[in-house]
Amino acid sequence: MTNTTFPSVFSLQGQVALITGGGTGIGLAIAQSMHAAGARVVLVGRREAELQAATRALGERASYVVHDITQLDAAQSLVDRVTKEVGPITCLVNNAGIHLKKPAIETTPEEFQKVLTTHVLGAHALVRAVAPGMIERKTGSILFTASMASLFGIPLVVAYSAAKTAHLGMVRTLATELSQHGIRVNAIAPGWIETEMSAKAMAGDPARKQKILGRTPMAKFGAPSDVGWAAVYLASPAGGFVTGVVLPIDGGASIGF
User: Which segments in the chain show pLDDT lower than 70?
Assistant: First the structure.
């Protein structure tokens, strides 16, 4: 740890954060908080219009690359491009993902594989591409966006749940392999966060909304920035001795009754 005084201990000054799925939702919230903490942020996603709007709003020290993380063989070229254009990647945020809401017995192998490829294989490909540079520099942070589906059973999301649970195994294994090289690997597990996607999911379904609030001890939805600032902590010198953990940002939902 180099910065040991407040507030510099939480600063990401000089860091380059590559954030997948960074154009909207939780990914954008992480980008906003990391940018505010001083990092250069590179947003990665498939929809250029959203990436353009996000980087324009962030302003200086923000850029984007249109990239599909399911193109596994292209992970190295993405990392090489960002390194050349922006600088060595000091923080990788594996946030990109897709959702599938369907009964388990109706989920086809092809649908299951698509979810796993995006969440698990796509994240692994990027870790493989970015880790050697971090090992060489003997520093780095890798974050995964896990989920409440990583922690307890939620119906109709068998593929998503399997993928998000896999993230926790990846975090533990990667932490044991990479921490000796100064690379910390952690996960954040957002609870129910107030986003455009969650608003659409709740629209016209007051019973679902009430069920969620009823099992959340804080009895409210979280803000996207709640997740963003947790990511800043884990990537900052303040989290310098934290590795291999999953941090729920959920208002107590994962421990509530």
Answer: 1-3
CA–CA separation, 155 and 176 (whole Å): 32
Task: Find residue 176's DSSP bridge partners.
Answer: none
Write out pLDDT tens, residues 84-127.
Answer: 999 999 999 999 999 999 999 999 999 999 999 999 999 999 99
* Residue from 160, 221, 229, 233 carrying the catalytic annotation: 160
Q: What is the pLDDT of residues 185-203, one digit of tens each?
A: 999 999 999 987 777 777 7
Question: How far is the C-alpha of 210 from the C-alpha of 152, rounded, in Å?
Answer: 19
Give the start-to-end residue ranges of the domains of the chain. 8-249
* Superfamily per CATH, domain 8-249: NAD(P)-binding Rossmann-like Domain (3.40.50.720)
- Within 13 A of 169's CA, how many CA atoms are on the CB side? 9
Question: How crowded is the C-beta side of 57, counted as CA atoms within 13 Å?
Answer: 15
Q: DSSP H helical segments within 215-250, as ranges?
A: 224-235
With beta carbons less than 8 A apart as the criterion, state whether 118 and 69 touch. yes
Q: Is 160 annotated as catalytic?
A: yes
Cis (ω within 30 of 0) for the bond into 7?
yes
What letter would DSSP give residue 168? H
Distance CA 114, CA 108 (A): 10
Please choose, from the candidates 167, 195, 188, the residue with its C-alpha nearest in 3D space to the C-alpha of residue 254.
Answer: 188
Rounded CA gap, 105 and 142, in Å?
34
One-letter amino acid for residue 1 of the chain: M
One-letter amino acid of 2: T
Radius of gyration of the chain (CA): 18
* Cβ-contact 145, 92 below 8 angstroms: no
Angle value at C-alpha 35, between 33 and 38, nearest 5 degrees? 115
